[in-house]
Amino acid sequence: MSRVPGWLGRLGAGLTEMSERWNERRAEAERERDETESGTTSDDHVPPPPDYAPDVPARPDPALAVPWGVRVAAEAGWRLLVLAGTLWVLTRIISAVQLVVLAFVSALLITAILQPTVARLRRLGVPRGPATALTAILGFVVMGLIGWFVTWQVMENIDDLSSQIQDGIDELRNWLLNSPFHVTDKQINEIAKNLREAVGANTDQITSAGLEGVTVVVESLTGILLAVFSTLFLLYDGKRIWEWTLKLVPAAARPGVAGAGPAAWRTLTAYVRGTVIVAMIDAIFIGLGIYFLDVPMAVPLAVFIFLFAFIPLVGAVVSGALAVVVALVTQGVFTAVMTLVVVLAVQQIEGHILQPFILGRAVRVHPLAVVLSVACGGMVAGIGGAVVAVPLVAVTNTVAGYLRAYSRKSALRHPVRPRGATAMSAEPEREAPSE
Q1: Which InterPro entries does the entry mention (predicted)?
Q2: Cα separation, 363 vs 373, whole angstroms
Q3: Roughly what angle, to the nearest 10 degrees, separates helices 254-292 and 203-246?
Q4: Which of 63, 112, 322, 433 has its CA 20 to 30 A from that of 391?
C-alpha cells in the first residue's frame, strides 16, 4: 500500500511537467502568429541595448530647437504679410470707389467745420432739423460765393492778364536777343514753330483730353452732390450713425473703439479749424502783399493760396510759385523777387509760430510723415488724396495712441492670469490639513 502513493506522485509530476511544456509551446506559437500577422519579422526586431551601453539623449522638440530670434522673426513676418495683404486689398477697393471715398471724406471735413455751429444752435434751443438745415445752407452758400467770386475775378481780368503775359513774353524775347547767350531771332522763331507743330501733331490727344475733361466735370458734380448729402446726414444724425457703427465692432474691442472715436473726432475738428484759420491768415497777408505790389488778380491769387493751404507743405510751395510767376510775367523781375520775399516771410511765420500755436500738440505730425502721406495720397487719389492724407494720418496717430493707453489701463485693471505650466508653477502651495 505504501508504493501506490509514490507511483501516483511520479505520474502527477510527469503530467504537470508535460502540461507546462505544452503551454510554453502554445504561447510561442501564438507569438509567432501575432508577429506574422503584424508584418514584422525577426530581422526587424531591435534587441534592447546591453547594460554597459551609454545612454543616448532624447531628441529635443523641433519647435524648441529653432532659435528664439528666428521664431520671433517668423511670427512677426507672417503677421506683417497678412497686414500688407489687407492694406493692398483695401487700397484696391478704395481705388475702385475713389469718387465715393473722396466725397465721404470731404463730407467729414466739412462736417468738422460746421458741426460746432449746429451744437451752438442746439444749445440756444433751436431744434435739430432747423439747426442742421440753417448751418448747411449757410456753409454751402459761403463756399459757392467763394467759387463764384474767384471765377468772376478770373474772367474779368483774363484779357488784361493775357495782354500782360504777351508783353512779358516780348520782353523775355528782347532780353534773350540782347543776352550774353547769343540767341538769335531765327532760333526763337524755330522754337515757336516747333511748338506750333507739336500742338498740331497732338491734336487728337488734346481732343481726347478735352473729352476726358468733360468726364472729370461730370464726376466732380457727382462727387459734390454726394458730399452735400453726406454732410447733411452727418450733421443731422452723426451720433446715431456712430452708435450703429459701434455695433459692427466685436464686443471685446467695443469699449476701446467707443473711446477712440470721440478722440479721433476731436483731432479732426481741431485740424480742420486750425488749417482754415492758418490758410485764411496766409491768404490775407500774402494777398495784401501782392496787392500793394500791383500784381494783377491779387484777390483770386489769395483765394488760390487759401485753397492750396489745405495741402500741407506742397500746397504752400505751389501757390507761392504761382504768385511769383504771375508777378514775374506781368510786372518784371523786381516785383517777382519782392513777391517771393512776401510769400517766404508769411510762410515762415505761419510754419514756426501760427501752426504750433493754433493746432497745438493734439494734431502734431512729423514733417517726414506729412511729406510721405501727401506723396502717397497724391499717387493714390490725386489732389483729393493729397488733401485728405494728412488729417487721416493725424487721426490714425490719435486712435493708435488712445488704444495703446487703453490697453495698458486694461492690463493693470484686469491682469492676465497665467496659463499652462506657468499657471501650475504660479499656483500657491496648499497647506496640508492639520490632524
Answers
A1: AI-2E-like (IPR002549)
A2: 14
A3: 140
A4: 322
User: In the predicted model, what is the mean pLDDT of the chain?
Assistant: 76
In single-letter form, the type of residue at position 217 comes to V
Residue 65 identity (one-letter amino acid): A
Alpha carbons 381 and 386: distance in angstroms, whole number: 7
- Classify residue 388 as left (phi > 0), alpha (psi -120 to 50) or beta: alpha
Q: Can you tell me the mean pLDDT for 232-257?
A: 85
Angle, helices 128-177 vs 314-331, to 10°: value is: 50
- Cα separation of 34 and 32, whole Å? 5
Structural contact between residues 272 and 112, judged by C-beta atoms closer than 8 angstroms: yes
Contact 377, 310 (CB under 8 A): no
pLDDT at 144 over 60: yes
Report d(CA 417, CA 422) in Å as an integer: 9
- 486750425: which residue's cell? 274
Grid cell listed for 220: 466732380
d(CA 318, CA 131): 38
Cα 280–Cα 282–Cα 285 angle in degrees, nearest 5: 105
**What separation in angstroms does the CA of 8 have from each of 1, 15, 17, 21, 382?**
12, 11, 14, 20, 115
pLDDT bin (cut points 50, 70, 90) of residue 81 is very high
Residue 314 neighbours by CB under 8 Å, 6+ apart: 374, 378, 386
Is residue 347 within 8 Å of 316, Cβ to Cβ?
Answer: yes
* Residue 355: all three cell numbers together: 501752426
C-alpha to C-alpha distance for 129 and 110, rounded to whole angstroms: 18
- The band of 420, judged by pLDDT with boundaries at 50, 70 and 90, is very low
Report pLDDT digits (tens) over 11-62.
767 777 777 777 787 777 777 776 665 654 445 555 666 666 566 666 777 7
pTM check: above 0.70 = no
